[in-house]
Amino acid sequence: MESRSPQRRSGSKKVCQDLLQQRARLLLQYCQISDVCVQENGTTADLLHRFCQNLVDYVATGHFALYDRIIKGGERRQRVQYLAKSLYPQILESTSKVVSFSDRYAQSTDHFSLQQDLSTLGEVLAGRISVEDQLLAELVTGLNFSISVPDDSRPPIPVPT
Fold first, then answer.
1. Please, what are the domains in the chain?
2. Is 92 helix (H, G, I), strand (E, B) or coil?
């Protein structure tokens, strides 16, 4: 049993690192696409499509890699299990809103209300991040944990000229 605990903690650490790296990349893209919308009052379809893909990937990682892992018994710490179960409804709600945004804009050329929808999405993401951070803080307790996103890991996002 002793040998399984470090492996379990290693799995938690990896999930947390992956989620935070995806989050950092997503927030960078969010800022870039928001900036394009403000400056030009429009955006490119390719940029928006890639953002929507990364948005769904990010929420899927949190939803499946993190919450499902905990809820399905991949985490033994009672406090983490309790916290995950109590925060799960908020994660479900934000996941639904993110998927709705992605469904609306991933393939659409109608960007009439994109700027307002991005603002609303920003609020949804801020709420989700706050909830995730509560759980991540509990998960990394007792772990030697740090996160960094190397400059070369940022996805290239062309900004229209």
1. 4-140 (1.20.120.1370)
2. helix
